[in-house]
Design goal:
alpha/beta; 8 strands; 217 residues
């Protein structure tokens, strides 16, 4: 019997967002007269939200310096995501298969909420989601279970009937904290050995495998 609902991470799971994130961060760093980073280095900064992204770019800085860099990043990212975010092949077919199986959909990201909503609505205009949630005040970010539990409430399902899908160990830790099964995908920002060690319930190497794991569980 298939799951009744699925909660997806966004970056590295459904979309390749690294180009837009890297461009926006480097533009913000340049604006402050700081050194920039290669895109592959910035890949290792992703997963914990925009504040952590900036902290990793300029470690050991006071809050006001981080505030300034984060504001600059958000200013540039408002434009850079539009050309620097690509939908992974097979995602639209995955959504169609879920909807044909009456599996409800939600997205939970540590990306700032406004960007999460804009990207999802911009790239997936024909898909219905019961909830789209990004990082916001009052909700502790992943791996805390808060957002996942709110999504489950919106989906009107239970933790055992809902699977969490993500590309990082943070996503697997989130699923564990919320009491949901988890599927880790290997095409994102964390290496397969890390995902296996994290204790994911299943691993998907392709979008086709992921579709089968969700719809034929």
């Amino acid at each position: 019997m298939a799951y009744k609902a699925v909660i997806f991470d966004l970056d590295g799971t459904l979309v390749e967002s690294l180009p837009g994130i890297a461009s926006a961060l480097n533009l913000a760093l340049q604006e402050q007269g700081r050194n920039t980073y290669p895109t592959e280095t910035i890949r290792t900064f992703i997963g914990d939200g925009s504040r952590a992204l900036c902290q990793r770019a300029i470690p050991d800085q006071p809050s006001e310096v981080l505030d300034s860099l984060e504001a600059g990043f958000k200013k540039y990212y408002a434009e850079e995501w539009k050309t620097g975010t690509l939908v992974f092949d097979g995602v639209h077919a995955l959504f169609t298969a879920c909807q044909e199986a009456d599996i409800r959909l939600a997205i939970l990201s540590n990306k700032p909420h406004s960007f999460t909503v804009d990207i999802v609505h911009g790239l997936f205009p024909n898909t219905t989601f019961d909830e789209v949630m990004g990082q916001q005040e009052g909700i502790t970010k992943k791996p805390a279970p808060d957002g996942t539990l709110l999504c489950i409430e919106k989906l009107n399902t239970s933790a055992s009937d809902t699977v969490f899908v993500g590309d990082s160990t943070i996503d697997i830790e989130t699923a564990k904290a919320a009491g949901t099964p988890s599927i880790a995908v290997t095409w994102g920002y964390h290496d397969q050995p890390q995902l296996i060690a994290s204790g994911a319930n299943a691993i998907a190497d392709t979008m086709q495998q992921l579709t089968q794991l969700i719809t034929q569980s």
